[in-house]
Amino acid sequence: MADAALRLKSLIEQVLGAPLPVRIRAWDGSQAGPPDAPVMVVHHRRALRRLLFKPGELGLARAWVAGELDVEGDLYTALDLLAGLVWERGEDARTLGEALRDPEVRAAVRGLVRLAGPPLPPAPPEEEMRRRRGHLHTRRTDKRAISHHYDVGNDFYEIVLGPSMVYSCAYWPDSDATLETAQRDKLELVCRKLALTPGQRLLDVGCGWGSMAVHAAREHGVSVVGITLSQEQAAYARKRAADEGLTDRIEIRVQDYRDVRDGPYDAISSIGMAEHVGADRYLEYAQNLYGLLAPGGRLLNHQIARRPQRDESAYDVDEFIDAYVFPDGELQPVGTTVALLERAGFEVRDVESIREHYARTLRGWVANLEADWARAVELTSPGRARVWRLYMAASALSFERNRIGVNQVLAVKTPESGASGMPLRARTWN
């Protein structure tokens, strides 16, 4: 079959009703498509079988993770070109069901089935999280989901994140700053927003590898309790605290936020953790944190947000992210987050969007991964490394295109007297 690429391009365009913006190189070596565009390499017909069984994002992701699909050229450009066909087709685009009413589209699908060959469907790649029945966001299911994402290996995360070991949006002071500088500035920004002073108690919810705990204890003299559900993160964070000589001021626990009982704390930081809480549990999360704060205490909630939908009841989670990256993770609009924090009793005093900062952060992580690709594969697996590269590159584009955002929400447990302790002039931390 010396013309597989041309046949594949023609059949896909008939199904999509739009020209394919990338060049295709098929398993037989043939090529078709725009000569100067990034090349989508279809290494095996099995990639087509995956797309036919799971049309759209999940099928593409499975083929990518299995190594049956690849991109030659700039990955960001390829993803940006494909976004209009796969992720952002718009309200006027036909759904697959509507398209299949067209006899020509049905004929094209039959052509793809013949081109793909038997059998159908292939088993999902190993790295996919197997779905289980039952309630989401119980202590058991949350621990399992966190382990899937964060217990990949500390050595692997050192490659991706760099020496800071901060796995959340950095805060870039200027365009020439390094990733390390930007992560340090983010941690310092959080500390300033919380107005930390020596002797205070800080609870760091979802403490990761201990970066915030170490920075707050070392630079601001506070005592920190950091909690995580990841055994590997906890071990790493404890070692960092010991290496810094801060074990008298830092306690790292493997503990669910719902099980913390030793308040009051003067401040709480929750940086990149609330995405794991779930919409049905969010009010409970906010109420728990409110109950752990002393009157006048501050919460800094740093959280990714999605854009509001015209029909919120029709919102679906991202299939690729849910299956491979953050199982059971849920994003909600920033307005929903603010409303739930206020329902829990907080007074929201500041909301800062830092969306563009996350795009820069993710591009930095992708560059780190690509620079040490062979070792990253050795530490995990080819499939796992491919998952991380795809999800971080696609996420960078999502932030750049305003499909998702990230916000720091500063809230206060204002006492009955109304004395919030906040300065009269806003943003004094800048």
UniProtKB/TrEMBL annotation:
Region annotated Disordered, chain positions? 116-140
Q: Which keywords does the record carry?
A: Lipid metabolism, Methyltransferase, S-adenosyl-L-methionine, Transferase
| Compositionally biased spans, kind Basic residues | 131-140
Reported EC number(s) for this entry are 2.1.1.-
Kindly indicate whether the keyword Membrane belongs to this entry: no
Cross-referenced InterPro entries: CFA/CMAS, CMAS, MeTfrase_dom, SAM-dependent_MTases_sf
Which chain regions cross the lipid bilayer?
none
- State the top-level EC class: transferase
Listed GO molecular functions? Answer: methyltransferase activity
Q: Using the record's annotation, list all stretches that form the Polyketide synthase-like methyltransferase domain.
A: 156-415
Q: Would you say which domain of life the source belongs to?
A: Bacteria
Q: State whether keyword Transferase applies.
A: yes
Q: Which family does it belong to?
A: Belongs to the CFA/CMAS family.
Q: PANTHER family given for it?
A: CYCLOPROPANE-FATTY-ACYL-PHOSPHOLIPID SYNTHASE
Q: What is this protein called?
A: Cyclopropane-fatty-acyl-phospholipid synthase family protein
